[in-house]
Amino acid sequence: MQTTYDSKVLSILEDKIQLIETDKGAIYLVGPIRLPVNLDRETVVFQWYCWLNCDEVTTKYERIINKLASTNLAELQQSSVLVFGDFANAEEAVIRMHSICHTGDIFGSRRCDCGFQLEQSMKNIVEHGTGALFYLANHEGRGIGLFSKAMAYILQENGHDTVEANEALGFVDDSRNYSDAIQVLKTLRPKPVTLMTNNPKKMEALKNAGLTVSERKPLWGDVSEHNEKYLQTKISKSGHIEAEGTCCND
């Protein structure tokens, strides 16, 4: 069903949309949107963007907006990015490519370190003065989805480690793809970045896309009896780089 929008409403929305063409269609990036965030009981103002993948490539954004009312996007997942400071122009900027973790990010689960990494990376960005947190919505459970992750957790409670559980369900260890986030990063910042990660695959993805990564900063912490085996498996089987002096050492 086609909707006729008020011209003022349409001009407001269109002014906040960018088209990023891809091999499979387009990414529509909406923002920036002022987003005050509670971080350590202080209000920090980020600039928030969200993006949507679409087969149609058009600069007539009313066509894309029209599709929203007939598509239940709440049943799908869209990724987004929080930007702090003069991200486009600053000489140095730190970024985090953060995979969604429903249990860790929302519930504060200590079976993993994702909630800690999310909050700590935001703090690091603010302390640095410039940076961006990419929140990647289709990465749950290293790309297997929330329902499959729940089944993997059951297997872990019965002796499997993280990698073994994913493989037992018919998945590879890590099926995440960073291509969309990289396209958005290229649009928002042409200069080199410092990447906060323990995962060399993320470094490789950015470099293979032609981006200059000036430095890698580790992001270890919140180690406990609940996630120690999980973190050790990341190092021993998934190739994560262990920082010197972390308590992940045997």
Structure description:
With 250 residues, the protein is of the alpha/beta class. The chain has a domain at 35-49 and 79-139 and 176-236: Rossmann fold. The protein is built from ten helices and eight strands. It has helices at 7-14, 61-68, 102-106, 114-128, 140-143, 146-156, 162-168, 179-188, 200-208, 228-236; strands at 17-22, 25-39, 42-54, 80-84, 94-99, 131-136, 193-196, 213-217. It has an eight-stranded mixed sheet with strand order 1-2-3-4-6-5-7-8, with helices on both faces. Strand 7, helix 9 and strand 8 (213-217) form a beta-alpha-beta unit. Helix 6 crosses helix 7 (162-168). The longest helix has 15 residues, at 114-128. Mean pLDDT is 85; it is low at 245-250.
Short description:
An 8-stranded mixed β-sheet has the order 1-2-3-4-6-5-7-8, with helices on both faces. It has 250 residues and is of the alpha/beta class. The protein has a domain at 35-49 and 79-139 and 176-236: 3-Layer(aba) Sandwich (Rossmann fold).
Attribute tags:
250 residues; alpha/beta; Rossmann fold; eight-stranded mixed β-sheet; globular; disordered C terminus
Write the layout of secondary structure elements.
Layout: H1 7-14, E1 17-22, E2 25-39, E3 42-54, H2 61-68, E4 80-84, E5 94-99, H3 102-106, H4 114-128, E6 131-136, H5 140-143, H6 146-156, H7 162-168, H8 179-188, E7 193-196, H9 200-208, E8 213-217, H10 228-236
Parallel strand pairs: 5-6, 5-7, 7-8
Antiparallel strand pairs: 1-2, 2-3, 3-4, 4-6
Helix pairs in contact: 6-7
